[in-house]
Amino acid sequence: MSARKLAMISYRGLQLAFVALVAGQFFVDYPFSWWWVFLPLVLSCGIVVALGRSTAAEQGADPRPPVEVGVPVTGRWSALNSPADKVPSHGTHAYGQTYAIDLVAEPEEGGRPAFRSLWPLVRRNRDFPAFGEPLIAVADATVVHATDWRRDHLSRNSLPALFCLMLVEAPIRDMGGAGWVTGNHIVLDLGDGTYAMYAHLQRGSLTVRAGDKVRAGQEIARCGNSGNSTEPHVHFQLMDGPDLDSARGVPFRWRGIGVPPGGEAFTVERQPAP
């Protein structure tokens, strides 16, 4: 087991210990002191900070050139949380997300529901044009991991729903591990020590399973809203290993597009399936 993997297991264990200590006072009569109750939480935060600094130092000392791959979607989409704007793009190096990017489908300008302050609190996934859109393999690859049993929840695109996601749902999923954060996801081995991960897939949409060989352009799943997601969207990233707990992010370039910055729309023509 790698040191990074062990550190992530310790991080989640300390978070669970904090929750157990706080909840335990309501069921068990024991001497209570806030300083040692919060100690596991402080230690877990320290592990995350240390891992982030270590990853940044390692990638700064030995930077990998961007890997050019195909685009994982077709049609008209917009980029969010792009590594073209900042690195790490999602504010963390955890789970190999250093150069991750999010994509939302916008068949036309204003074609997806906008964020609302109060109402509606949530929306059905079918209201978003990204939901159910096909995702394609970015290169010839081997499927390393594939799961699609987790539910697609309603959107979290209002302030009350977003607060619930960030303050309640996200910490609980984080304690559950990478699979709960990414939701339904697939990991492809592209060769040469590079792996592609697609997250938040639609429940029951996978067309491949672990061990399958796929061809570039082949449909492998559909866009969903599972895991730590505010609305149906595609989360895509490259990394240097298949284990999200220990993988480090790898920069990418999409063939013919590059890396679209946040807010930029782009269109990819649909190609015949291989």
The gist of it:
The protein is α+β, with helices and mostly antiparallel strands and 274 residues long. The protein has helices at 3-24, 34-37, 39-61, 159-176, 178-182, and strands at 67-69, 75-80, 101-105, 134-136, 141-147, 185-191, 194-199, 213-214, 219-222, 234-239, 249-250, 252-254, 265-268. Helix 1 (3-24) runs antiparallel to helix 3.
List keywords for this structure.
single chain, 274 residues, alpha+beta, Glucose Permease (Domain IIA), 9-stranded antiparallel β-sheet, 5 helices, 26% helix, globular
> What form results from the Cα inertia axes?
globular
Structural domain tally: 2
The beta-strand count equals 13
Q: Could you state the oligomeric state of the chains shown? A: single chain
Assigned CATH superfamily of the largest domain = Glucose Permease (Domain IIA)
Q: In the CATH classification, which architecture of the largest domain applies?
A: Distorted Sandwich
Report the end-to-end length measured between terminal Cα atoms. Answer: 38 Å
Poorly predicted parts: none
Rg, alpha carbons: 19 Å
Average pLDDT = 90
**Strand percentage:** 15-25%
Q: Mind describing the biggest β-sheet?
A: 9 strands, antiparallel
CATH class label of the largest domain: Mainly Beta
Q: What letter string, H or E per element, gives the SSE order?
A: HHHEEEEEHHEEEEEEEE
